[in-house]
Design a protein that fits this description.
CATH class of the largest domain: Alpha Beta
Strand content: 15-25%
CATH superfamily of the largest domain: Isopropylmalate Dehydrogenase
CATH architecture of the largest domain: 3-Layer(aba) Sandwich
Order of helices and strands: EHEHHEHEHEEEHEHEHEHEEHHEEH
Bound molecules: nicotinamide-adenine-dinucleotide
Number of helices: 12
Largest sheet: 10 strands, mixed
Oligomer: single chain
């Protein structure tokens, strides 16, 4: 297992360090893991005047999986756009062909109070949003602004999905549902959009190869409502780039704790980039207070989706549950009666809890 480790900026290096400790422990216990580190984002700019230095890209291309912290910071906000940290992220996603974005929204029982929704609605929530990442209205051509016949300006974008783009993301979706609760809800706007009519047709065709998965369809406006009304009805939600962008943020906020949620972006060969959903949190960087659990849980996703090491994935996730049960909390998820710990201490506690 060749892993490229890209800590990035802000809290990135602190939280990635904890995830690396977890991987080193798995390695000592028998998994053949090789890790190599390289700069990305602002750190890439500092090292090579490029948010995705050539050497970093080469390392990521040669690796089976990439572990990323986060990029960005006020120091880089005034750089010209191609030099900005987030360009490093956009470019690496494109270069690796990462078209499938997996964002779980999982609420540990111990943290049910962190949600803004009633505990009974969200306690035990465990859903997976699968968002297509490289097509749709965000990339469709033509796009632009033009003058209309009556002389006013008009903005336009093109929403489109080809059959093959829909098929490959649907196949990933059914595959994930098979590893989870065997239910897949495809979200579209087929009552209004032709793109969505084709989306629905192709998803139904792909479903024939997965007779064990229960398929349902939902319009995106209803899905947005159902996510806050009764989110536990979902297992896997499959959707396009724009709807997924919005629904995955909504779903992650059901859990109330940005420091807890991992993500994965996969290509056709199951190579993946794994990262927490949060940013580089410059407001708390370098103070040993950031929550490293989202990054640690990203390594569990890596074990499951790139390496097929389900046992290792469960081992990491169980260790995280155990430290939460022990009452350890970083500042972002702390409540009275719990033991407040720093980033390093939380990382050490997870490593210690990996024993079983
Ligand atoms: P952010 O996610 O970095 O922070 C939002 C809030 O959540 C802050 O108060 C922060 O302290 C807190 N927070 C985030 N992660 C935390 C953690 N692990 N533990 C405890 N608290 C945590 O979002 P932002 O403030 O909008 O952006 C800051 C920088 O991050 C910007 O430069 C932005 O461009 C970048 N960013 C990067 C990514 C990425 O690398 N994928 C994603 C989003 C934002």
């Amino acid at each position: 297992m060749k892993i490229a480790v890209l800590p990035g900026d802000g809290i990135g290096p602190e939280i990635v360090r904890q995830a690396v400790k977890v991987l080193k422990r798995l390695s000592r216990d028998g998994l053949k893991i090789e890790m190599e580190e390289a700069p990305i984002g602002g750190a890439g700019y500092d090292a090579a005047q490029d948010p995705l230095p050539q050497k970093t890209l080469a390392l990521a291309q040669a690796a089976d999986a990439v572990l990323l912290g986060a990029v960005g910071g006020p120091k880089y906000d005034t750089l010209p756009r191609p030099m900005r940290p987030e360009q490093g992220l956009l470019r690496i996603r494109k270069e690796l062909g990462l078209f499938a974005n997996l964002r779980p929204a999982l609420l540990y029982e111990e943290l049910a109070n962190a949600s803004s929704l009633k505990t009974e609605i969200v306690a035990g929530l465990d859903i997976m949003i699968l968002r297509e990442l490289t097509g749709d209205i965000y990339f469709g051509q033509p796009r632009g602004t033009r003058k209309t016949d009556n002389g006013e300006r008009e903005g336009f974008d093109t929403m489109k999905y080809s059959e093959s783009e829909i098929r490959r993301i649907a196949q990933v979706g059914f595959g994930i549902a098979r590893k989870r609760g065997r239910k897949l809800c495809s979200v579209d706007k087929a009552n209004v959009l032709d793109t969505s009519i084709l989306w629905r047709e192709v998803v139904i065709e792909v479903a024939k190869d997965y007779p064990d998965i229960e398929l349902s369809h939902m319009y995106v406006d209803n899905a947005a409502m159902q996510l806050v009304r009764a989110p536990k009805q979902f297992d896997v939600i499959l959707t396009g780039n724009m709807f997924g962008d919005i629904l995955s943020d909504e779903a992650s906020m059901l859990t109330g704790s940005i420091g807890m949620l991992p993500s994965a972006s996969l290509n056709a060969a199951n190579k993946g980039l794994y990262e927490p959903i949060h940013g580089s949190a410059p407001d708390i960087a370098g103070r040993n207070v950031a929550n490293p659990l989202a990054t640690i849980l990203s390594t569990a996703m890596m074990m499951r989706y790139t390496f097929g090491e389900e046992a290792a994935a469960v081992r990491i996730e169980s260790a995280v549950k155990r430290v939460l049960k022990q009452g350890l909390r970083t500042a972002d998820i702390h409540e009275s009666g719990m033991k407040k710990v720093g980033t390093e201490e939380m990382g050490e506690a997870v490593v210690a809890a990996l024993h079983a």
